[in-house]
Design brief:
- The complex is a heterodimer of chains A (141) and B (186).
- By secondary structure, chain A is an alpha+beta fold.
- Chain A has helices spanning 30-50, 91-107, 121-139, and strands at residues 4-10, 16-21, 61-63, 68-73, 79-84.
- Chain A is built from 3 helices and 5 strands.
- In chain A, a hairpin with a 4-residue loop joins strand 3 and strand 4.
- Chain A is globular.
- In chain B, helix 1 (9-15) runs parallel beside helix 4, helix 2 packs antiparallel against helix 3 (42-68) and helix 3 (42-68) crosses helix 5.
- The mean pLDDT of chain B is 89.
- Chain B has 186 residues and is α+β, with helices and mostly antiparallel strands.
- In chain B, a hairpin with a 7-residue loop joins strand 1 (96-99) and strand 2.
- Chain B has a single domain (9-175), classed as 2-Layer Sandwich (Muramoyl-pentapeptide Carboxypeptidase, domain 2), CATH 3.30.1380.20.
- Chain B has 5 helices and 4 strands.
- Classes of the chains: A alpha+beta (141), B alpha+beta (186).
């Protein structure tokens, strides 16, 4: 079964505002997750600079032996990325769904402060559903 | 996977949850009325409405981008068209038109024929300086600021003040480049 290991959301200045892990693999403590987030933020920025083509919007997919990392950056600069089993499909679509959930349940929450860590229960609930639904779809194939 | 095609304002408007128009109009009316009571000065109310709109705009832009699948606009002209045709339709259910471009393409007018905020409103003599819909200009300013465009949005025509349409002037002040400050040693 294709599995999602973890999900990160980083704000436009590179701060980790949301982290959640979903499996036994790749579980990290708070310090490590912060490290991964800021590393990714910097690498993403550097990749834009190094790219031979103009108008490059940064790394979208990093493939390693033991995991894939899919990244989506919104036009406002917030980055969403999932770490998953190698070869997991439909991650771009999942990231889009997560972006929509973020706009609905985080940004519309009047008590959420912009750029701050996300602590919204409704977001958690809907996110879990979206990720499970995605697993079900993948299982059904 | 190819990026999803941009959706039309109509399609998004049909798919999002909506509230009763009257509830919306009356709620906005109640807010403006309360602000007038609290702040007393019409000028202060204009400022407060603009600030409230700005706070909405900086959050609303992400929903707009997420649901419309609009990608980066080539120039400010495209941006204005997208606001008028997709943005207004998606959030207010009305379409606007873009006119009065200046020569260098940094200033234009968005004209609204229909405005759901003002359905039952008549401005009394005591509130003549009030820009009743000033929240809208704030929303546009806030939303564009989040996609690195500093703008100035002002009302040119307002039916409540005796004009024949609602006209918002959007002026692009500067485009803030998205690059990171690489020269840390300076």
């Amino acid at each position: 079964m294709a599995a999602i290991y973890s999900l990160y959301i980083i704000n436009k200045s590179g701060g980790l505002i949301f982290y959640k892990d979903y499996g036994s693999k790749g579980r990290m403590d708070t310090n490590d997750s912060l490290r991964v987030a800021s590393l990714w933020h910097s690498m993403h920025a550097i990749s834009q600079q190094l790219s031979p083509t103009t108008g490059c919007s940064g790394i979208e997919l990093l493939e390693a032996d033991t995991f894939d990392l899919h990244c989506f950056q919104s036009l406002t600069g917030t980055k969403f990325f999932v770490v998953c089993e190698p070869g997991t499909q439909h991650m771009e679509a999942l990231l889009k769904v997560i972006y929509e959930l973020y706009t609905d349940y985080v940004l519309k929450n009047p008590f959420y402060e912009m750029e701050m860590p996300i602590r919204c229960e409704l977001f958690d609930v809907n996110l879990t559903q979206a990720i499970q639904k995605d697993r079900v779809v993948l299982l059904g194939r | 996977m190819a990026p999803a095609a941009p959706r039309s304002g109509d399609a998004i408007f049909a798919s999002v949850e909506r509230v009763n128009a009257e509830l919306f109009t009356l709620t906005y009316g109640a807010i403006v009325r309360q602000l007038l009571t609290d702040l007393e000065e019409v000028e202060e109310v204009n400022k407060q409405l603009d600030q409230m709109g700005y706070n909405i705009g900086i959050r609303l832009i992400d929903e707009f981008l997420a649901k419309s699948n609009v990608s980066r606009c080539v120039d400010f002209k495209e941006t204005a068209e997208v606001i008028a045709k997709v943005g207004f339709k998606m959030f207010l259910g009305v379409t606007a038109s873009v006119t009065n471009w200046d020569a260098d393409g940094t200033c234009c007018s968005i004209v609204l024929e229909d405005n759901p905020l003002v359905d039952f409103v008549e401005l009394p003599d005591t509130c003549q300086g009030l820009y009743y819909c000033n929240i809208l200009s704030g929303v546009i300013r806030g939303a564009l600021e989040m996609v690195s465009m500093k703008t100035e949005v002002t009302w040119i025509r307002d039916v409540l003040r005796g004009d024949d349409a609602y006209e918002l002037q959007v002026k692009l002040l500067k485009q803030v480049p998205e690059e990171y400050p690489y020269k840390d040693d300076e």
